[in-house]
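pasting for the record
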Amino acid sequence: YINSIDLLALYEMKKYLNINDDPVQVKDENKGTLKSIPTNIDLSYQLKYDGIKNEDFYISNTAVEFQVKFFMYLASRINHIEEIYKNEERIKKRKEKLYNSLPKISFVVYTEDGNMKSSLEEYTKAYRIIRFFTRLTNIEFLDSTMFKYLAEIMTTISMSKDEKEKINLNIKKFCDNMLKFIDMRKVYYEVSYKMLKKDKGRLGSGIYDFENIYLNELGRGDYVMSLHSKSKELGEGIGLFAANLEDKDLLFKLRNVKNHKQMVAYFKDLKFTILKKKSEAKFTKEFNEVMEEILLNMEESPESWEIIRDYISIYAIDKYRLTIFAKQKQLSKGGK
């Protein structure tokens, strides 16, 4: 729900963002009749303008997940306001008016669990998150945008849930961190190992660019950005090596690294494995140079081991999954 002591700002938001208090009605494909769904926001109608068509995306199991999607709806609505106004000057004025109204608006989430316990929570960072999402709509990725990739990665994380889990804690954590503008690295790390274990899904080629954009939004300095870049290079090399060996052991060994000393030992073990498996180890000179840089960095800043381990794992698993999938596809077509 949106609220404000400024009634004019509230009117502006409700009118031009197409928000009312009535539940949305959708067509029941089986019965051919209209049915009400428990939300007053038609997410799919709006977000189709951004190419978000996967029906799984529109299923929310927690309040924070719906909140993120709601703010994506608002960003999309503002960004595509030209669908309402054709005149460029009117579009510009309307967008300015909406952005000026945002700081005066409070967003209240009302939830009720199965035991009829209710809660009311106010969100105060709406302006920032909508501006961030709007920025994503203007960043190209492949044949679409980073905004669509955000929807894709949310769907991937949602689909990584184990059968025994009642609630997918990873998508809940992802959305909670997004709303609070907190680091996402640990979420990607946990999801990556779930996908590796299940042999299903991957974060995709957009994860590096998206994480860089998000780290910039959080104000992370050159230090973390540099670790992220170097760890990606190492991770992709390790993932390709593991795929050529058709052995996940190198990846799960990273999961068992719990401190700086064990991280250094992992690299020593990796070097030894590379020497033993020279025919499968097609590492570049740059890879070896980056590995030495990372080892030097850990010597100077021992606390960096966890950031390095996490990012290497994320990109190693993604590269491994991509390479294995490509091999399986080739075999299915009768290739070698």
